[in-house]
Specification:
Helix 2 packs across helix 3. This protein has a single domain, classed as HIT family, subunit A (2-Layer Sandwich). A hairpin with a 3-residue loop joins strand 1 and strand 2. The mean pLDDT is about 95. It has 3 helices and 5 strands. The protein has a 5-stranded antiparallel sheet. The protein has about 130 residues and is an alpha+beta fold. Bound molecules: adenosine monophosphate.
Length: about 130
């Protein structure tokens, strides 16, 4: 059965997309710990990040870098933190989280509740800074 992220990539489930190429897809986390919290996902369905082969894993890192540069420009922050958990969705993904201090990377932090308009605005801002 397709994962929820494959359904998002296929457009069967809506998302706030920020970037895409032939192999990777980036969209806003629906339960963000910070404004601009973004997920980067390979279109290939693999559960565990380190089960990706070297080409996909390095491709994911390079695509995440491009997305992180755009997030940093769109959302004022000290830097963009990187987190990999994968405990909830069995489809490898990288969390990119704008940070001011180390506590901002804590996934147990209370989630922000953003309006649709806020999600759309942040996604649009990140998209506008993304350089393929
Ligand atoms: P984890 O698998 O532990 O890295 O967590 C999965 C992440 O995916 C969580 O931060 C969720 O908020 C996020 N998530 C789950 N479903 C969706 C969705 N439909 N759209 C955006 N983000 C989602």
């Amino acid at each position: 059965m397709a994962t929820i992220f494959s359904k998002i990539i296929a457009g069967e489930i809506p998302s706030y997309k920020v970037a895409e190429d032939e192999r990777f897809f980036a969209f806003l986390d629906i339960n963000p710990v910070a404004k601009g919290h973004t997920l980067v996902v390979p279109k290939q369905e693999t559960d565990y990040l380190f089960d990706l082969d070297d080409e996909w894993l390095s491709g994911l890192a390079l695509f995440s870098k491009k997305v992180a540069l755009a997030v940093k420009k769109a959302v004022p922050c000290k830097r963009v933190g990187v987190l990999v958990m994968g405990l909830e969705v069995p489809h490898a993904h990288v969390h990119l989280i704008p940070m001011q201090n180390e506590g901002d990377l804590n996934p147990a932090k209370p989630k922000l509740s953003l309006t649709q308009e806020e999600f759309k605005k942040i996604a649009g801002d990140i998209q506008s800074f993304f350089i393929p």
